[in-house]
Amino acid sequence: MKLRELLALIDTGHTFHFVDTETSGSSPASSRVIELATVSLRHGRVVGRFETLIDPGVHVPSWITRLTGITGQMLVGAPAPAEAYAAWDAYLADVGHGAFVAHNAPFDWGFLNAEYARLERPWPFERPHCTVRLARKCLPQLRSRSLQSLIAYYEIDVSARHRALADAEATAEVFNRLIAAITPASV
Questions:
Q1: CA 20 to 30 Å from 140, out of 2, 57, 92, 125?
Q2: Which residue among the candidates 17, 103, 129, 162 is catalytic per the annotation?
Q3: Would you say residue 181 has pLDDT above 90?
């Protein structure tokens, strides 16, 4: 999407859903989503939050636990995928369907598409928007546009890195800062 089109969506009050997942591994074919969070913004303001652990019935590797702090024990009693995604769909319908935004969007988009395909559920979004790509346009001087690098660049306070809600909130803040920095010459 062109930057001009993105700005038009913002101006018209389009809802932006900042999505983050934590997963049991790195491949949607062999790993599963174990945590999902969304922070929804309209006109740059939070209009809703969604967060859930998900128990897909898979082992959580120790390296994932070290990264996220999520253990297999934490997933016991969490909603199964069908229940979790039904709740997310209800949340999206309540807040207002809009744009899917994530940091390194192909990762979260790929995992969630795979989860919806497994359940034969209709996917609620048309296309992903990626804050990494936006950061490349807006901050070409930075060597890294990782979420951690942008958090440091903007001095954003994050309560729990590599937890879905905290990362979704950080992504929303990064997006707002990137949008605020856009000049007419960059459009």
A1: 125
A2: 162
A3: no
